Automatic annotation (TrEMBL):
GO terms for biological process: response to arsenic-containing substance. This is Arsenate reductase ArsC. Pfam families: LMWPc, Phosphatase-like_N. Residues 83-208 form the Phosphotyrosine protein phosphatase I domain.
Amino acid sequence: MTREQHGLDSPDETLRRGAAHLAKLHPELEPTLIERIVFESHATLARGARIRTHLPALALKFAADRLKALEAGEGRREDGAPLRVLVESIRNDGISQMAAAYLNALSDGRVEALSAALNPADEVLRTVVGVMEEDGVPLTESYPKPVTDDVARAADVIITMLIDHPFELQPEQEVLSWDFDDPAGLSTDEVRRIRDRVRRQVQQYLDALD
């Protein structure tokens, strides 16, 4: 029995429907550009994905972040707008996910953080998901994704973790380097200690913004 007989959309149909929805949310962008970014995002994630069950949905989330960044462009941040922060790491499966989640959770809307990687892992480390859940900051909708030029260009602040920023910096962008142990392969107690260090670092950063 075909997907159509089951009443299921093909991945391409899901992506096209998602692109049409995103076009309504971004009327100032050309629909053809939006569809291209959606399919490009899907292809980018698919290159390293072993499990593809939810790939179209993840690609649409990835595309939505990229479109928002594209709108922000290189312009100056308006007064009162959240500070755009990009947290970069090697695999985006641990410390960068923690940092971005805490930046969003603890900033009371002052910061809008994303995380990305040079070489994204297949999924966020389960120990990381578990210890963040314990602290009331779930990562249930988080997934490793590559750093892209459009998202990087839109960031006001770039926080690198154990890597160098892969793109040319834009005027007035600030780059910070935060070093933490890689939680991969560590025990839950060790990952908890890393989590607590990341949270303290984020809180210190946010306090300095006041």
